[in-house]
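Suppose you are handed a protein chain with no further information: no name, no annotation, nothing but its sequence. What can you learn? This example shows the usual starting point.
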Amino acid sequence: MSRRRITAAVAVLVLATGCGAADMTEQASPFANARGARTVTLSVQSWVGAQANVAVAQYLLEHELGYRVDTVQVDEVPAWDALSQGRVDAILEDWGHPEQEQRYVEDKKTIVNGGDLGVTGHIGWFVPTYFAERHPDVTDWKNLNKYADRFRTPESGGKGQLMDGSPSYVTNDKALVKNLELDYRVVFAGSEAAQITQIKQFAKEKKPFLTYWYTPQWLSAKVPMTEVKLPAYEEGCDADPAKVACAYPVTPLQKYLNADFAEHGGEAAELLKNFEWTTEDQNEVSLMIAEQKLSPREAAGKWVDSHPSTWQKWLP
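A reasonable first move is to predict its three-dimensional structure. Written in structure tokens, the prediction is:
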């Protein structure tokens, strides 16, 4: 993994609340990877930060360069297959998939790295800061069993609950619970949106919770959370998914382009290669989409209007 892994209507980006469909047959744009076509197809992952990337890229491609942009929601691993086949032209936020990188970038050469997104991602286990301040030792994984009863829920079957988001996100959590001998059960909320709803409800009631979470994410500014220190990450410690007993790595998030599109995609490909912004930029757009309930297009337009010095450098 490692999210490191830890995300369609024509010209409209829809805020997703569930898993992306793995079957691209009906979803893929017929114009994807068509030489000379002024159409671009972007893969949209289901978390709001990834949707913010696509919203801004789509807005600029349409308003500044005159392209038509199609978007397709698809889960993380199937998105690589679709990108390799030319069913989509670009993935704008990847949290690290070594197997797919080896297969498609190194071996088949059907996908190329499009450069850094500019955002550094990290997955971990978090508790609400209000609980960590009262029980500071909870931030060491060795003490989690001491608090298992405090994190118990009806869904966790007598064990402490470790709340995960979408089952489609690649996660080491079940292996970690087993290999670290923790008295917990991984419970999936079902989607990022459902997980956020549960976290906000717990926080409103000042209840303790333990959750798989990732940064950057706009909710962290609304519900302060403190990371639980897992055994330190070392290169290769997550190589065998069944034996993982270490923390998740810190991951510079990457863009990937279909190889033919990268070569023949003209101004669109050049803009996407140049697209690089900060965590603060991404969170600003994400917050407008998820919290202020603006449409992705509206949020992108507001950000573009107020940050010309950033995006003008991306134009070919």
